[in-house]
Amino acid sequence: MEIPYIVEPRKDTGLNNSKIGIWLFLASEVMLFGGLFSGYVFLRIYADYPWPERTLPVLPGLINTFVLIGSSITVVFAWVSLKLRQWRKFQIYMGITIVCAALFMVLKGVEYNAKFHHQAIRMDDYTVIEGHSHKQKNAVGGAHKNLNIKAKSLTVSLSRVDDIYFDVLDEQYSKAGFGLANDVKLTDGTVLEQGTAITKELIDQAKKDFLAALAHNSNINIELGRQAWKTVKSKHPGVKYYELVGDQTLKGLVDEELKKLKKDADFKAETPALNFVSNEEALISVNPYWGRLSNKNRGKAGRLTLKDDTSIIGTIADSSITINVDGIDFRHTITKAEEKGIPKDTAIKNSWLLKSNENMREVWAKHKVVTKKLVEYLEPKGKKPTENDIYRINWQEIAGLADKSIEDIEKLDHKEIEALFPGDIEGFAGPVHKKHGDPDSKGVAYPEVVVPRAQVRFESVFSPRWNTYYATYFTITGLHGLHVIAGALVLAYYLFFGRKMYEEKPEWLANRVEVGGLFWHFVDLVWIFLFPILYLM
Amino acid sequence: MADSPEQIKKHIKLYLLIGGALFVCTVLTVAVAKIEWLDFGSRGFGTADMVIGLLIALFKATLVALIFMHLNHEKKLIYWLFGFGLFFAVCLMLITGLAFSDPVEFEGFFGR
Predict the structure, then answer these.
(1) Residue of A18, A30, A81, A389 to mutate, testing the B interface (most B Cβ within 10 Å of its Cβ)
(2) Residues facing residue A148 across a β-bridge
(3) How far apart are the first and last CA of chain B?
(4) Could you give phi then psi for residue A466, rounded to 5 degrees?
């Protein structure tokens, strides 16, 4: 089918149809991104936690800005070359544009990857620590931060049991030697003997039986209900259910009748749950996103409830998170303390982190010297350090001052201290940690802290889950990244499959490139706002 | 269209110039945020930094829209289409501002 007015303009609009089409689309895109931006503004203004401002690595963002602006220029020149009928130049410019798009996505990937491997913990007293968690010593499967329990017994809820959890925990269950706690008589007469080992087949058999009994019983219930209504209504025709018959409503009579009928009914005994016991306490280790501990105190009796209502009962085992700390943030601690009327310094001094860990006390003592020097430096300029300066310690400071003593730092002034901090290139996408157990590996050995589970209010990697800032960061940059990919695919199509069209209808191809270019400029335009708002503000 | 090869040739210099301006503005935004003697207002991020950063971004966006996207010489219909979308986006931004007048924050809202 021939689409009209692709190259020549329509008389009434003075434009060709493709151009109107793309501008309509761009108008809707403006509203889409406008909505996301206003969502960001709203979340930021009303945030109930200290906003993580200027925490993203600027260098990858800056390079990406250059890359996108550069590609915007080349896409214009690709169009110009087509208009001037220079195919070779068009190929070169369009090629550069697509390489730029790929480079953008690679850098974005590096950035995302660094975030997804960077852990944060909000402590019970709202202190935030950031860093790399490493493997638990005792947890099954060498997990990073599992919930561990020494299990004695286990209850599987047959109505909710989910294979997803069972499949992963199956091995741990059988290793622990879980067997049925008592004989279970199923409705079809089979008896599951006490001590039968826990298997998927066993649970499936019991589940099937339970669901069948449930269906059977509810069918009887419905049937008896109908019967009861029928009998009572035939005795008292024309009476409404709320009207009195003697001293009872009609409904009351029905209930009585139903009770009588149920006595003789053929109900089957349901087995809603299976109980298992193990011979000895066995360690069960579960991903923290799968369940919840009733009690986080190690050594106490407690229960681990999975999302499918499987309940594992025993003694809470060590579920602490070992983390090499590359960032400390007391800003939330002090706001919470102020609400209770506790002085800021007292709150920080009494925070779990400083009370329990020698390394952290040292980092904080160094930071106090750094702040003092900063005040001395800013005073003549009539400026004051910000809350960020005073209550947040970032990875550059911990890395830069790792091998300096407090006396060393005392001798330096603010500028000299800052010179010790690693630059943008060293921490391109974030702090680089030494590999755990490998002292020769590249990176900094950040101080280690073992955080007991009882102190953990919330823990996450830097993913959308961590806070609303990262949620909006990943939403908007992710959507923008998808636009980059889509735009690059369209432009690549013109580059690699455009030759034939160029020879037959060059003006048509030029129009296509112009329209694709308009979209590309829009993607650049969104990034022009995204970069300062997310990276610099 | 009005873009004849002769006119386009004249524009090449302009495109390069605008590209250069965009690069310079980007460096400027980062400098304002990172370099201390360019840190306007109080230390760290503040209202002044926000206004300057957004103004530079707005300037860059205008350059891209006017020159690269040819909005400086476009048919009327395009302005209507794009303006329509922009209008609603701006309205949405302003609507979030209504949150400032949340009645819960009014004195006496809880009957005091």
Answers:
(1) A30
(2) A285
(3) 68
(4) -65, -55
Task: List C-alpha distances in Å: A425 to A60, A263, A287, A409.
Answer: 10, 80, 35, 24
* Count of domains forming chain B: 1
Distance (Å) of CA A91 to CA A52, A488, A531: 43, 14, 29
Identify residue A272 by its one-letter amino acid code: P
User: What ranges do the domains of chain A cover?
Assistant: 17-118+465-536, 140-316, 327-461
| A451-472 pLDDT tens trace | 998 899 999 999 999 999 999 9
Residue A368: name the closest of A357, A382, A383, A354 by CA.
Answer: A354
User: Among the listed ranges A269-283, A346-360, B90-104, which one has the minimum average pLDDT value?
Assistant: B90-104
**pLDDT tens digits for range A115-166:** 999 999 999 999 999 999 887 776 776 667 889 999 999 999 999 998 888 8
Question: Which of B16, B50, B96 is facing A38, going by the closest CB pair?
Answer: B96
Distance CA A290, CA A444 (A): 33
Distance from CA of A402 to the nearest CA of B (A): 24
Range A88-97, long-range pairs (CB < 8 A, 24+ positions): A90/A502, A90/A513, A91/A495, A94/A491, A94/A494, A94/A495, A94/A513, A95/A495, A96/A70, A96/A71, A97/A71, A97/A488, A97/A491, A97/A520
Q: Options 3.90.330.10, 3.40.50.10810, 1.20.120.80, 2.30.30.100; which CATH number does A17-118+465-536 get? A: 1.20.120.80
The whole-number pLDDT of residue A156 equals: 93
C-alpha torsion angle, residues A414, A420, A424, A426 (rounded to 10): -170
Q: What DSSP line would sit under A410-427, residue for residue? A: HHS-HHHHHHHS--TTTT
Chain A CB within 8 Å of residue B24 CB: no
- What is the ipTM for the molecules in this complex? 0.91
Tell me the per-residue pLDDT of A171-201, one tens digit each, with 9 for 90 and over.
888 888 899 999 998 988 889 999 999 999 9
Q: Using alpha carbons, list the distances in angstroms from residue A253 to A147, A219, A229, A232, A238.
A: 53, 21, 9, 7, 15
Residues of B with CB below 8 A from A469's CB?
none
Distance in angstroms between the alpha carbons of the first and the last residue of chain A = 51
Q: How far apart are CA A449 and CA A308, in angstroms?
A: 33
B6 CB contacts (<8 Å, ≥6 apart)?
A: none
**Any idea what DSSP says for residue B66?**
I
A468-497 and A506-530 are packed helices; what angle lies between their axes, rounded to 10 degrees? 160
Nearest to B19 among A19, A73, A378 (CB): A73
> Does some domain include residue B111?
no
Query: Quick one: which of A421, A416, A415, A413 has its CA closest to A393?
Result: A421
Given a cut of 70, whether residue A489 has pLDDT beyond it is: yes
SS3 at position B88: helix
Contact A46 B99 (CB under 8 A): yes
The whole-angstrom separation of Cα A526 and Cα B6 is 32
Q: CA triplet A424, B17, A511: central angle to 5 degrees?
A: 105
- Residues A156/A182, Cβ–Cβ less than 8 Å: no
In tens, the pLDDT along A275-318 reads 999 888 888 999 888 888 888 888 899 999 999 999 999 999 88
Residue A444 has what DSSP assignment? B
Q: How many helices (H) and strands (E) does chain B have?
A: 3, 0
Strands A291-293 and A301-306 turn out to be antiparallel
Quote the domain boundaries for residue B94. 5-105
| Six-digit token string for B54 | 């957004």
